[in-house]
Amino acid sequence: MYLKLSHWLAMGGYGAYVWPAYGVAIVIIGCLALVSVLSARAARRELQRLQTASHGAGDRAP
Fold first, then answer.
1. Inter-CA distances, 40 with 4, 12, 53, Å
2. Which phi and psi angles does 55 have, rounded to 5°?
3. Are 26 and 20 in contact (CB under 8 A)?
4. What is the pLDDT of residues 2-57, one digit of tens each?
5. 3-class SS at 61?
6. What is the pTM of this model?
7. CA atoms of 36 and 28, how far apart (whole Å)
8. SS3 content of the chain, % helix, strand, coil (to 5)
């Protein structure tokens, strides 16, 4: 069993290239997901701020 797993992980001699590529791809996708979540949170805060400011300005008479 161990020999089969190590043979599979070696990917026919290309494992040294394949696994780092998978690692880099996972890190990049993880960073993109993190940036997306942070941007969405910032956009929600900005929307809330603008809505609050808009409602507050509408209450005042010119």
1. 45, 43, 20
2. -70, -35
3. no
4. 678 888 889 989 999 999 999 999 999 999 999 999 999 999 999 999 999 988 77
5. coil
6. 0.71
7. 12
8. 90, 0, 10
Residue pair 18/11 in contact (Cβ under 8 Å)? The answer is: yes
Residue type, 19: W
Q: Which two tokens stand for residue 30?
A: 């993880």
Q: Which two tokens stand for residue 1?
A: 């069993």
Place of tokens 């996708």: 29
What's the per-residue H, E or C state across 19-42? HHHHHHHHHHHHHHHHHHHHHHHH
Q: What residues does each domain of the chain span?
A: 28-53
User: Residue 50 and residue 42: Cα distance in Å, rounded?
Assistant: 12
